[in-house]
Amino acid sequence: MRYARREGVSETAIGDELFLADVTSGELFHLDRGARGLWTLLAEPSPFEAILATFRDAFPDEPGDRLERDLRQALAQLMARGLVVTVP
C-alpha cells in the first residue's frame, strides 16, 4: 500500500508555515514541521517503509520506534481529514 496526497487539496506556504485547503469543503489545515515534511514526501505516492526510511535518515538521533509511531499517527490524522489517501 502506498500513501498519496488527495487531489483537490491546495497548499500555501507563508514563511515557515504550510497551510492546506480542501477546495471541496473549504476547510483549512495547518501543518507542523514534521507533517510538512511528510506532505512533501507524498508529492509522489510512497509506501510507509520508504517514508520511514527517509525520516530515519533526516532524524538519525530520534529513536526509530518513536519515528514510526509519530509517522503512523500523522498519516492517520491526514487520512482522517481526507488529505491523504491510499493508492495501489
Structure write-up:
The chain is of the alpha+beta class and 88 residues long. The chain has one domain. The chain is built from three helices and six strands. The strands form two sheets. It has a three-stranded antiparallel sheet with strand order 5-1-6. Strand 2 (9-14) and strand 3 form a beta hairpin. Helix 2 packs across helix 3. The mean pLDDT is 95.
Could you give a short description of this structure?
This protein is an alpha+beta fold. The chain contains 3 helices and 6 strands; from the N terminus they run ββββαβααβ. Helix 2 crosses helix 3 (64-80).
Describe the secondary-structure layout:
Layout: E1 2-5, E2 9-14, E3 17-22, E4 28-31, H1 33-41, E5 46-47, H2 48-58, H3 64-80, E6 84-87
Antiparallel strand pairs: 1-5, 1-6, 2-3, 3-4
Helix pairs in contact: 2-3
Task: Give, in spatial order, the strands making up the sheet with the most strands.
Answer: 5-1-6
Approximate strand percentage: 25-35%
Can you tell me the overall shape? globular
User: What is the count of DSSP helices, taking H or I runs of 4+ residues?
Assistant: 3
Mean pLDDT: 95
> What is the tally of beta strands?
6
Q: How far is it from the N-terminal to the C-terminal residue, by CA?
A: 6 Å
Helix and strand content put the structural class at alpha+beta
| Number of individual domains | 1
Rounded to the nearest angstrom, the radius of gyration is: 13 Å
